[in-house]
Amino acid sequence: MNTVMTAKEPAKEPANDLAKVPPNEPSKEKHGRTVIDGAAARRQRYEALVTAYYNDIFRYAYWLGKSRQLAEDLTQETFMRAWRAFDSLQSEGAAKAWLFTILRRENARRFEKFQPDLDDIEDHQSALPDARVHEPDQQMEMRLLHKAIAELEPEYREPLILQVIGGFSGEEIATMLDLNNNTVMTRLFRARNKLRAVLDPGSQAQDA
Amino acid sequence: MNRNLHDKELDELIRGTLLSVSPPADLHQRLLQLDAPAPQPQPRAWPASANDGIFRRVLPVAACLVVALGIAFWSTTDRQAQLADEIFTHMYLEGQLDNAAADVLPLATVNTRLKQWTGAHLDVADEKDDLDVTFAKDCWVAKQAAFHMIMKGESGPVTVMMIPDRDSIGGAAREFNISDAKYSGLVTPTERGYLVVIGNKREPLTAYRNLLTGRLEWEY
Lengths: 208, 220
Known about the structure:
The complex is a heterodimer. Chain A is mainly alpha-helical. Chain A is built from eight helices and one strand, in the order E-H-H-H-H-H-H-H-H.
């Protein structure tokens, strides 16, 4: 989470900085000092990871399961597993894809337990754009789009949210979803066309 | 609804909708509590009984009312923190975080776009030191349309956002600082909303804030 300070408070260096914290190294000393420092550094790196990615992880979880409660559970479980397996993360550059992959696995486990897809109508309402800050037409489009995204088939919705929320390239998405790149690009194209057709029924968008 | 929807416009709407979902305010703190027992996803009764529905609705509302009385003081800070999250998220998504080689936009172009979206323009009458703006377009941040500029700073890109509605995002009357691991920012209330200036931690943000607030002229 980003820090907020009032202007009169002295600026302080945020504790959470994934880039500045050295990766964990095996202890080379027999005395406790190095071990303790390693544990502290590990925790600092974890906190930086949480701060950097928890928003996106929550959003990804929400759009996968379409429920705020489920998104909270999945986000917490994802970071708990990340913490337990933290030493396996070798590179900060890979952290985001790693977290998204953990979350996908957690979501898949949900289906293994025969839990049906959740679709909280209240969630849709709470996530709708604020009526005070949007023109009526814009509100209408946001409402339509929110519903349309939620109703997209998972094969179209997931590449779209990985691209927009995760910022992943087509190739990265293909790797994560175990698809080939052309399939991903086709699904992205079709997902947009489906959403366009909702907002602009006269567009007669053509599938690839 | 039937209108010609451009690709970029559609992408902005999709992005705005997908990012309009924010986590609960306390989730970040909960995720950092490693000493607490591992969170157990709550099993959901399926289908829920009628009583479950009542408790699910009434208890959170009652709890919220009680908590709201106690933490009124903190609510503004929470909203500022949420705003900070949304600003940084948008900044990272928009990209152009290395604009050293990017072309500088003519100030007339910047002003045309700025005026269209905010009703303001940057004063050029006395030809003060020019701002090297490499990106200027409307954007979607904090659940509303805003304006986003990126300038060349002394040691990296400087992001500027103009968010028009103060009330909807906390209504802070005082300037406040935001930061993440890499960047710092100033959120300054102006007569028409917030001016946000973000740069890496070596950038003289106050100087940019002064330069911008001194040159912004509101036309309507």
